[in-house]
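hey m, so remember when u said the tokens were messed up on ur end? i reran from scratch. heres the input so u can diff it against urs
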Amino acid sequence: MEDSILRDGARLRLGYTTGSCAAAAARAAALLLLTGHRAESVALPTPAGRLLTLDILHLTGDENAASCAVRKDAGDDPDVTAGALIFARVAYADGAGIEIDGGEGVGRVTKPGLDQPVGAAAINSVPRRMIRENVAEVCRESGYRGALRVVISVPGGAAIAEMTFNARLGIVGGISILGTTGIVKPMSEQALVDTIRVELRQKRALGADYALLTPGNYGADFLRDRMGIDPARAVLVSNYIGDALDICREEGFRGALLAGHIGKLVKLAGGMLNTHSKYGDCRMELLAAHAGAAGLPAEKIAEILRCVSCDEALRVLDGAGLREDVLARIAVRIEGTLSRRAGAALPVGAIVFSNQLGFLTQTAGAQGLLRHFREN
């Protein structure tokens, strides 16, 4: 695969996710166990369509199990897991199929609302699929039809996890095995803002009077599936909502509409215009505060503060019949934050949604801006 990307004249090296490391290590361990082949490297297709070739380390095994590792390379991304060894142990098991679990240094889910259920190892859905597909392919090629147990571990993962938000989210004992594309793209803040600037400038040069913004792929999917708007019209602004509004004003747009997941946009209600978790995670505090203002009893406010996802908190509000009221209050605060940053010359609006619950709320100025995109 191409191992770097060019952003604003700077070449930044790509990396690969902990999920890719786990899948490659599992493939190599399955090869060692089922065929005796000691792979020095494995080719790994990724969900992004890129083919990785990853070096295999620490090959050990006997007649019952085999273990291999891949060292995480985050490229030029400032990732706390960079350099960590991701091990996979593959062993024969009773029954049928491929069982996947976490061992040392892989977190365990203790609160609901995350990608995996309570009690499961914090190995997200896409990495689990990658691990299963790679091990299953080795099984087919070797003619093995029995069951296997795959355990992913990360020596030192518990210490690494202390530098993340895992404990707050209810993931204890280690890091999460993550990744939706298999590839880590560098998160140089200035490079990302410059990329947003280029895309908005291009839209303006092609005649766009209004800017359509969304933090990422969830927003693009929502625009297509729920709003009937071509997601290609949107500019992905990641966490840099404030910077994107500045650029929209500088480029002379007549208005800007932001569509985003509540997990991102609720932070705007607290005045955050860079929504990256490294700057803070005030989601539950904001929801709880507005719920209290709407009359939610103290014990239910405490329940919201224990939630790890906004969807989970919204279900608490549903039970009290307060979801609509609380979201309306939050929409007013979001509008205030956006308007203060955008200024009078740039009308702004926001649409807030949830992947599970769909459309949630919108600011007062959103409907007029949305009409423009639907009619043009």
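this time it looks ok to me. The chain has a mean pLDDT of 92. if urs says something different then somethings off w ur setup not the seq
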